[in-house]
Amino acid sequence: MDQVPLDLHPPHDPQLPPPGTPLIEIRDVRKEFGHVIALAGVSLTVRAGEVLCLLGDNGAGKSTLIKTLSGVHRPSSGTFLVEGKVASFGGPRDALNAGIATVFQDLAMIPLMSVTRNFFMGREPTQGVWPFRRVDFKQCRNVTHAEMRRIGIDVRDPDQAVGTLSGGERQCVAIARAVYFGAKVLILDEPTSALGVAQTSMVLKYINLVKSRGLGVIFITHNVRHAYAVGDSFTVLNRGRTLGTYAKNEIAMDALQNLMAGGKELQELSSELGGTV
Amino acid sequence: MSGVQIADTSRNVSPREAPGAAGQPSGPAHGAGDERLRRSSLLVKLMRRPELGAIGGLAVVLTFFAFTANGSMFTLNGLMTVLNPSAQLGIMGVAAALLMIGGEFDLSIGSMVAFAGLVLGVLLLVLHLPLLVAVIGTLVIAGGIGALNGQLVIRTRLPSFIVTLAFLFILRGLSLVGLKIATGGSTQMRGFRAVVDGSVLAPFFSGNAFGGLFRALAAHGVIEALPDGSPAAPGVPIAVVWFVLITAIATWVLLRTKLGNWIFASGGDANAARNSGVPVDMVKTGLFTLTACSAALVAVLTVFDAGSTDAMRGLQKEFQAVIAAVIGGCLLTGGYGSAIGAFFGSIIFGIVSIGLTYTGFDSDWFQVFLGAMLLIAVIFNNGLRRKVTGER
């Protein structure tokens, strides 16, 4: 991995609201699918320049919550505010236009296509007049190359297929794409779950950068250590409800771990195994 | 610091510089002089092109016929004889390649050739519409059926293989029944010559192009002339001109336009493409319309050429078009391939089908040859793709 030195504290982006401004606020959001209650009242606030970590075990409702925030599902009830205004998304496109970008686990990247073609997929810059209108691939290549350099990835050849990139690199390209196209809030769905140590630190470093720039980040993870490394506040989900939201100075890593582990049995198991779970 | 200034980022997107950039001094200019841009070796670059296999195949086939075929195959006239069937297949082959890159199949295009012939016949000889109206009407009706194919595939979420297989039979049956009704019992319709000959439109769909050029070249002894001074090859068959034109446009669209990127994306991973804002359903419907129209164009060309239409026109052409696309480097799973590849795939097809008559072999070996080519192409392409794209 060829790393370019990065400025870890870039200045705030003037296009974004000042740090601390609530970008997304949801209160008591419920989502039911027939008889199944996926979300039974979830509240959280995402602020500009902050990383909100969403923690919860499988089945806690994380996926439903992400899909609700990114416009895939409509909430059954509850309040959903984006920058103080009531939001009602008809689809993912509306959420994207409102500045909410989701980097899904499958990354929305196509392995057989080049990095450049993936980066601009669906938003290709064009030049010329119809019927001779064409994609400005020179600009695409330069932008992709420059963006990849900025996030500290050895770009090699921007025409190489995404399939040849490592997992961490793909994750960073997906995040860079969302940032480049004007996201205000980034929803990252377990970006570090399939990565090794070096690649995880690369992604965490990049999340930190995005935050310093003034974006709001929702970081979904199983791993308390990763969450604690970059998080400003932590919301724990359990069985479709928020167990609580804590600022970093309000809760220690151990307490967060215990809260996330939920039931007593898991805590006992954890101590039996020497606190390593 | 690594900040790099981008000269122009303000077109139809509203991009923002990534974090880490603002307020930093400009780094080394990107582009040719960048030490981080690893130069891909020429070999890797070549191997990354999907049409490489087809060009290799063409070389093999040409070598084979250079040793076995009689010399008249490699004259200008022989070349045109080979290129004509290549072109008739290739017009559909290139369209089928685009659809395949978009992740779908169309098995109904062979039957569509017969059906479009019927439609043209009815519009022209039964309803006595003007030639231009009849040709446009045929293309519109064929395109409509193509769009119907596409919508059925998208809405039912059935594999396009099944939906278009149904239309393979529906359209063939309709052609038979329709021709019998229109002609009073025959599965052939004749009498196009009287309407077509002398029409302003005729040169666009029948005969040869560049006849004057060929005559001039023959007169100056550049190309072979018959004893009476006229050239041995009367010109380039008009289907070949269409074939080259369509390949050129398809290649440009695939490699240089937004739509091309969307076609690759739709076939590579329809879900990922949708998440990125690509109108996948529209792209696929458009591609089905295109393949149907390409079959209708072939129908118009063959009807103008032969002066008749037949319910058995285009038999098995759907499979041959798929073979041409696959030999040309298209993956059966979509998302990868090229129009130029399908171009060469179709030429290989024409060379083998016509070329065997120039040799001492029984020309029925043709199908054996074709099947073997297909198998080798698929195995070769899959291996190559894994190596080049890092897919495991």
Automatic annotation (TrEMBL), chain A:
PROSITE patterns linked to this entry: ABC_TRANSPORTER_1, ABC_TRANSPORTER_2
Keyword line: ATP-binding, Nucleotide-binding
Region (Disordered): 1-20
A Pfam family per the record: ABC_tran
Keyword hit for ATP-binding: yes
GO molecular function, one term: ATP binding
The UniProt record lists the keyword Glycoprotein: no
The ABC transporter domain, residue ranges: 24-264
PANTHER family: CARBOHYDRATE TRANSPORT ATP-BINDING PROTEIN MG119-RELATED, SUGAR ABC TRANSPORTER ATP-BINDING PROTEIN
Name of the protein: ATP-binding cassette domain-containing protein
Record organism: Rhizosaccharibacter radicis
From TrEMBL, chain B:
Ranges of biased composition (kind: Low complexity): 18-31
Pfam families tied to this protein: BPD_transp_2
TM spans (from-to): 52-76, 82-101, 113-146, 158-179, 200-223, 235-255, 287-307, 319-337, 342-359, 365-384
Broad class of the protein's primary localization: membrane
Membrane topology: Multi-pass membrane protein
Highest taxon listed in the record's lineage: Bacteria
Region spans: Disordered: 1-34
Signal sequence interval, chain numbering: none
Coiled-coil positions: none
Subcellular location: Cell membrane
Keywords attached to this entry: Cell inner membrane, Cell membrane, Membrane, Sugar transport, Transmembrane, Transmembrane helix, Transport
InterPro entries reported in the protein's UniProt record: ABC_transp_permease
Job description of the protein: Part of the binding-protein-dependent transport system for D-xylose. Probably responsible for the translocation of the substrate across the membrane.
UniProt-recorded name of the protein: Xylose transport system permease protein XylH
Protein's organism: Rhizosaccharibacter radicis
